[in-house]
Amino acid sequence: MEKVKKICMILLGNILYAFGVSYFIVPAGLISGGITGLSLFLNKAFSLPLSPCIWAVCFLFFLCGLIMLGKEYALSILLSTIAYPLFYSAFEMIYAQYGPLTDDIVLCTAFAGICFGLGIGLVMRTGASAGGSDVIAMILLKKRGFAVQTTLYLVDAVILCLQIPFSRPDQILYGLLFVLAYTLLLGKVMLFGQGKVQILIYSEAFEEINRLIVSEFHRGTTILYGEGGYRRENTKIIQTVIPQRSLFTIRERILKIDPQAFIVINSVSEVNGRGFTLKAS
Q1: pLDDT tens-digit profile of 171-193?
Q2: Alpha carbon 165 to chain centroid distance?
Q3: Which range has the worst mean pLDDT, 49-53, 67-71, 206-210, 256-260?
Q4: What is the DSSP letter of 165?
Q5: Of 74, 87, 91, 108, which is most buried by a Cβ count within 10 Å?
Q6: What pLDDT band is residue 68 in, cutting at 50, 70 and 90?
Q7: pLDDT for 85-128, tens place per residue?
Q8: Which residues neighbour 121 within 8 Å (Cβ) at sequence distance 6 or greater?
């Protein structure tokens, strides 16, 4: 039942994402980041049909993820790799037959931000990924140790710049507003706030969970020593601070190791130290 729920959330997220592109981004000519932005660049620079461009870029990123990051990561983006271009193709045909919902660039900007923020947020809440810039960021993290969030911003900035020569000044400015709007909404959808999150994990399988966090997610941990209030038994507690985008994936992996694990999650407004404000060694 849980798997069905996740699949439905991923599909709904991709429906919103594809709807936002076909009915708001493309008609208004807005610039965008990620898979959509790269596809729009190919469409404008080489006069290629947009739908085949989206299919090609999606599968290119999927193959890169499969080759460089392995089967497990590739499986996390597989459904979105198929669903997003499929839903976009469907909406493109509906749009061609029935026309736009609005020609107002302001409305297009606002509703594109809503569709993207909700759509990508729903996908990420399942622990999956929409692919695109995430793939490049994860590859650079694995190969070079670059921070994921910084890499995502840089990659999207490059993709946005590629579209500038083919866009009007107002499309560029509204496109930047759209990116800002959906980024802010995405943060709200993920955890109703911004910043990092602190996790405290109480589990008898603390050694295995600690290895998971340190080795696979490249986050630092602290082992705290505590005592149960009722039985007075000594216990070890894992403390770590992670980005919001990793929360649902890490939580899912922890519960796979120990379904009885007791996990406390706190929102953190600011973190200073190695891996956050200092370069990780």
Answers
A1: 999 999 999 998 888 877 765 44
A2: 27
A3: 67-71
A4: G
A5: 108
A6: confident
A7: 999 999 999 999 999 999 999 999 999 999 999 999 888 888 77
A8: 13, 185, 186, 188, 189, 190
Verify that 226 and 245 share a domain, yes or no: yes
Q: Please indicate whether residue 226 or residue 52 has the higher confidence score (pLDDT).
A: 52
Q: Could you tell me how many helices (H) and strands (E) the chain has, helices first?
A: 11, 4
Q: Tell me the chain's radius of gyration from C-alpha atoms.
A: 20
Q: How far apart are CA 99 and CA 109, in angstroms?
A: 18
Tell me the pLDDT of the chain averaged across its residues: 87
Residue 276: which of 240, 224, 222 has the closest Cα?
Answer: 240
Taken in order 81, 86, 87, 93, the sign of the CA dihedral is: positive
From 156, 191, 226, the end of a domain falls on 191
Range 80-84, long-range pairs (CB < 8 A, 24+ positions): 80/10, 80/13, 80/14, 80/123, 80/128, 80/129, 80/130, 80/131, 81/131, 82/58, 83/10, 83/11, 83/14, 83/15, 83/18, 84/14, 84/17, 84/18, 84/35, 84/54, 84/58, 84/130
Q: What's the token pair of residue 210?
A: 């600690």
Task: Note whether 66 and 143 are same-domain residues.
Answer: yes
One domain, residues 162 and 233: no
Task: Give the count of domains, the chain.
Answer: 2
Q: Which residue has the tokens 């997610």?
A: 217
Give the domain extent around 169.
2-191
pLDDT surpasses 80 at 279: no
